[in-house]
Design goal:
2 helices, 39 strands, mainly beta, about 40% strand, eight-stranded antiparallel sheet, single chain
Length: about 450
């Protein structure tokens, strides 16, 4: 029986954990809960070590999409106990970073952030990525045909802020103080409208761009956002019951083209920017500056004579419910509203030159060996190579004394906090010598053992 008992002890004392090829020892005197706790902990560590390196971006500490903010703070992490990170924004190269990272003075447009972790000599091969749009408050530009900021707050006149002064009339509208930029027009889904009468002189040529901010909150069904269609031709943009966007182009001979987005575009109870552009060759639909649909189109759009309705087609009882803000009509196809000059193009790469060509941002690499900055305060001597800033060497943060810590943060640069020389011994005096470092001289203070 003794030998048998010892054999049982041996069985209950050793457990093989295959994931780590490790033997876990239990004494049979251990409680069952102790055994379960020990084994669960070991198995958890085994799974952690075996899992592939993975980088994640916080769902809460990151910019809203879209946002007016020119500053972005982004937090990220990895699934290993000790990781370093490399980050990139837009077309820049990856560079060392720490969580959270903050970017300032961002320009209007679509931005893309990527981060990858490194641990135990390995690098995450699939960086985590987050994309968002920065869209500030618009203003009238030389090619603006009409711009309705919708900040009236009361009254029946809807003012055109462009030089054209195509003012409109508010029909049963309410005004909301919290639009995308300032106030907004509130539509009730049944009887509200903004009408720009034919007598205002507003006509929409080809090419054109029509854009607005919307926040749907009302009933579903067919809801018109913008309508100029009459017997002479025109343009209608409407929202389907399933939140797809429809676009109708009508020629003066009465023929029409109708396009509908393949998927739901609009989200209820959220602000979103919609834009429709037409060049005479391509009809395009954008949401938050991201191109969603492109259709080949060559129709000559007739100029309507009966004016423009915004947020409704009352004759067909197709009225939008929710908020509309910042309606801008331009006589230029404008797939990127911020690209009119090179200064409008997003360029965070010191080794590339930006240019605005036909309304599109293009980037050209600068000559190799051009001096640049990798935006890391801890490196110096960077040079451009094949369009990217590389070759920075670590800066010297030493202040010539052993009584400070010489450290460097990639955002803020060198810092030299004092060394703590406390040895927690009441019988020594703790001091620091700039050359020798910490000193602990014996003292004769009274003490107790």
């Amino acid at each position: 029986m003794k030998n048998r008992a010892k054999w049982i002890v041996t069985l209950c004392s050793l457990i093989l954990v295959p994931a780590m090829f490790t033997l876990l020892y239990y004494g049979c005197g251990d409680s069952e809960s102790d055994k379960v706790g020990q084994s669960n902990s070991l198995f958890a560590r085994a799974i952690s070590y075996a899992a592939a390196l993975d980088t994640t971006i916080s769902a809460t500490v990151r910019p809203n999409d879209p946002t007016k903010s020119k500053t972005a703070k982004i937090k990220f992490a990895c699934n290993k106990s000790s990781c370093t990170f490399q980050c990139k924004l837009d077309n820049a190269a990856f560079k060392s970073c720490a969580s959270p990272v903050t970017y300032k003075s961002l320009k209007d447009g679509v931005h893309s952030f990527s981060v990858k972790a490194k641990a135990s000599g390995k690098t995450d091969k699939t960086p985590a990525t987050y994309t968002w749009s920065v869209i500030g408050c618009y203003a009238a530009t030389p090619d603006t045909l009409a711009f309705y900021a919708l900040n009236e707050s009361d009254g029946s006149t809807v003012f055109d802020s462009s030089a054209q002064a195509h003012n409109g009339v508010a029909g049963s509208l309410a005004w909301d103080d919290y639009g995308w930029c300032g106030g907004a027009a509130q539509f009730n889904g049944s009887s509200t409208t903004i009408n720009i009468p034919a007598g205002s002189g507003l006509s929409i040529p080809t090419p054109f761009s029509i854009e607005m901010w919307i926040k749907p909150t009302g009933p579903g069904g067919e809801r018109v956002l913008f309508d100029t269609v009459d017997s002479s031709g025109g343009i209608t943009i409407w929202l389907h019951a399933d939140n797809r966007i429809g676009i109708l182009l009508k020629s003066s001979d009465g023929s029409t083209t109708e396009r509908v987005s393949g998927n739901a575009v609009v989200t209820s109870d959220e602000w979103q920017h919609l834009q429709v552009t037409y060049s005479g060759v391509w009809l395009k639909l954008f949401r938050n500056l991201v191109e969603l649909e492109t259709w080949p189109e060559s129709r000559v759009v007739g100029n309507p004579g009966s004016g423009v309705e915004i947020g409704a087609n009352l004759a067909e009882n197709a009225v939008f419910g929710g908020l509309i803000d910042e309606v801008r009509i331009s006589g230029q196809e404008d797939p990127n509203p911020s690209c009119r000059t090179a200064a409008n193009c997003i360029n965070t790469n010191d080794c590339q030159t930006a240019a605005c060509v036909s309304g599109s941002c293009q980037y050209t690499a600068k000559a190799d060996d051009t001096t640049c900055s990798d935006h890391n305060a801890c490196t110096t001597g960077e040079k451009c190579t094949s369009g990217f800033c590389v070759g920075g060497t670590g800066g010297d943060c030493s202040d010539g004394t052993l009584c400070t810590q010489d450290i460097c943060d990639f955002q803020t640069g060198c810092s030299n906090p004092p060394v703590i020389c406390n040895d927690n011994n009441a019988c020594t005096n703790d001091t620091c010598d700039a050359v020798l470092g910490c000193q602990h001289a014996n003292n004769t203070n009274a003490c107790s053992d």
